[in-house]
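Researcher: Please predict.
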Amino acid sequence: MAPLRVDLRDCRYRAMIGVGGIGSGVFFALHSNHTLGREESRAGRFLDRRDYCKLHIISHYVKILLGPEFEVMPIGKVGDDNPGHRLLDEMQEAGLDLRHVQVSPGDDTLHSICLVYPDGSGGNLTTDDSACTKVDSSFVAHAETEFSRYTGRGVALSAPEVPLEARAKLLEMGTDHGFFRVAAFVSAEMQPAIEAGMLQQTDLLAANIDEAAAAAGMPLGARDPASVVEAAIARLRDLKDDMLISITAGKEGSWSWDGETLAHVPAFPAEAVSTAGAGDAHLSGIIAGLVADLTLSQAQELATLVAALSITSPHTIHPGVERSSLRGLASQMQVRLSDPVERLLGD
């Protein structure tokens, strides 16, 4: 696979170390659109789709986009079971450094059942007693040596699906070693993360529109995304005025705040097979773009393209994401990209 055209010797950042969920899941298509009842038995079928967890998705895409010279080191745990060993094989094949991914004896790998209704809506059932729950601050602290190797030249990624204490430790270590610190939180975690002071140790916050509403103290499902974005940015600036912010809103596109300018990029018109994992793909593109010395708004363009390509696959990791496929999709959709992004995608 061909990575972006970037000379990492000229870039500030040379590695990403992240903590978060590593696991798998299945998609189950239900018959009929009415919400599944508590005692109802409903027919359906499993779909030929592979589901992955957030740390794995983001780490995979960042590695593929930036190539073998950029080290990507996830921190996490999988169970001593077939899904766990399969995931380790896939991550190793992608070139990820797995020295801090541990097999946890006696535990199961994180697993989700994704319910899909005929109208495309759905929800997840996710195990809460997996190996991921055993990722704590002391486990993350074992990676201190890796942070020391890249002092001032690394990206620290704090992703969901492991306990907040582990993610807080990673941000703390990133702060101590001068890393660029990236964080994401699900809606229910946003207020606890704010109260714990985790956003004061965050340089880039990535959120979807519901998570942004949670940050702003607004009800989830607010109808006007632009108002949610404005309220969230106002609240987050009070917490840390120099924090970069990326907010995605599906078909409404995405917004980025660089401390001075609010930029909006419409969603690109790719034909969607599955939107699962698109937000993680978008964050991957933001990280890769910033490593490649793009501005935040330019990185947002690249991220929108990565997310657009990701939704053309039924799987939450699109196996064909690379420079040429991104360039081909941009050409097919006839989207106009900025010159710096075009150069990264060049022949």
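Model: DSSP finds twelve helices and 14 strands in the chain.
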